[in-house]
């Protein structure tokens, strides 16, 4: 009696005080008590967790269910015997599961099913899979349903991932500096590894597993060759051991010149037999330590990195040589298509396609070419990359940037789900209508999606509470590229802030990316960023060493008009798309206004759909962006008291920063474009707070994340 009174008290306290302190460390796996009626409903379907298989991953799945369901229901749910409301988990190696004769083999290596069934006359829930990791994924799925306050009745879920490689790319250096990182230092404490296993490594792996991420490239694409030395491999091995039971493989970024730098060879020419032998031996050495090592990620002949081009060899020759070294062990090469050469006058947006498309079909079968979502570089809005659909005989994986280098770092609230959805749902028209980017990715024999990670040592992992949503959404979309950004937002919001506020939180998130586009670079403008760190506006910058590093290269604004002419009369980048798209996007009358200035240089007087001139529309979009941030502030203020105070307060302060920076972007860009166009501000528009010279003089040399 006393005991149950204690539980009731605990429950009452937990329910009555949503304002209890939280710092965000628990991510979307908080498992705070549900409202009483929902908690009762879940508890009736989760009396105990039954497993009769002794496998580490299945043990983790059981422990997660017990932890999660206990937290959500406020009751102690533990392992036990089969009874009404039990959750029975396992693979066909479990006698109980085998007896059910479920179609497990068809689920593939990572799929699962979650089903309400009757076992030995008792209604139970089964989480079953062909392999243990599927059981783990299924456990997280059941918890997601419970966290959203949804019913665990009559479950009939069958799931398998649509893409095979769902990997985070960490741009982390050996000294723990994170390139384009806004969440503290690298999680990998190389100095203390392998001796010290920070519990955070396990928490990281658990969070990834909860959204189906199954790989981590541990180091920066601008790679240090030292990562491949035995001293570092011992440390990598330790991390791999910690991640393995969570279904996560480790990969490394490989520097192409490593045979010279750490191997003592005179060349890194991929066709030199000594070079190939060096990489084979290196692969053997790695696999002796890490039998399930995933493979190499390579940035070659891009932004000063070495590559096969240094020896007159093609990307395929370089990639295939590495692939041959990994092949006996089952590893893959993820070869990046992010290339543009400083000595080429060709439009930067065209260069990856020009270089890679002719290599279609020339890559070894364990090479996958990693293509950024758009042709330039993770801008707030880009059309999809023209290589998608254009290399039918080559597996392509899509790379997105979870870390917000170009969308306001950690302080701006920008949910990236809609941006990725926009790309994944784009129709490539190759070979025919309906072939979306998602389909192109999923049809490859090797398939995948990579996300440049946004995690670091900050307590809240991502630098802000809302940036956790981007990590979460990446995992969900890599698992199922047809998943909807709005559904994912609602799930994340329910899990992270509570089911009662899921709708208003998701509503804020869904408008947030367009807000950033509006106050930074609307109507297809791109790369207006300040130099190097990319913090803040710099549309006037025109003095950098390479023309295609200068914002003026991208917007080409002058007295007559603005925009990059990528039509046939211009750079003809539009010609790299399927004819149906080239036609639509190549005509200013039919291109979506959101991409107008990406593809066209148009006069300031041009009439827009709104009836305004282009100049008026541009200014209106900048104003709209700032207004959208103000609206988010209002929406968030309305949630005070409905979520815990500590996180609420942090988000409020960040929104205040975002509002000020949105204003800064708007003012600086309007001041600049007014000057180059020689135009007065449209009637009624509030003038920028300062003269243009003031914005041009802003310097922020210590802005975080800059490459070095
Ligand atoms: C750019 C980043 C740079 C990266 C590069 C890449 O500014 O730090 O090294 O992409 O993807 O967006 O290689």
Automatic annotation (TrEMBL):
It is an enzyme of class 3 (hydrolase). Residues 463-684 form the Glycosyl hydrolase family 67 C-terminal domain. It catalyses: Hydrolysis of (1->2)-alpha-D-(4-O-methyl)glucuronosyl links in the main chain of hardwood xylans. Keywords: Carbohydrate metabolism, Glycosidase, Hydrolase, Polysaccharide degradation, Signal, Xylan degradation. Transmembrane segments: none annotated. Residues 1-21 form the signal peptide. Pfam families: Glyco_hydro_67C, Glyco_hydro_67M, Glyco_hydro_67N. Residues 147-461 form the Glycosyl hydrolase family 67 catalytic domain. The keyword Hydrolase applies. Residues 27-142 form the Alpha glucuronidase N-terminal domain. Its EC number is 3.2.1.131. The keyword Membrane does not apply. PANTHER family: ALPHA-GLUCURONIDASE A (PTHR39207). Belongs to the glycosyl hydrolase 67 family. Homodimer. This is Xylan alpha-1,2-glucuronidase.
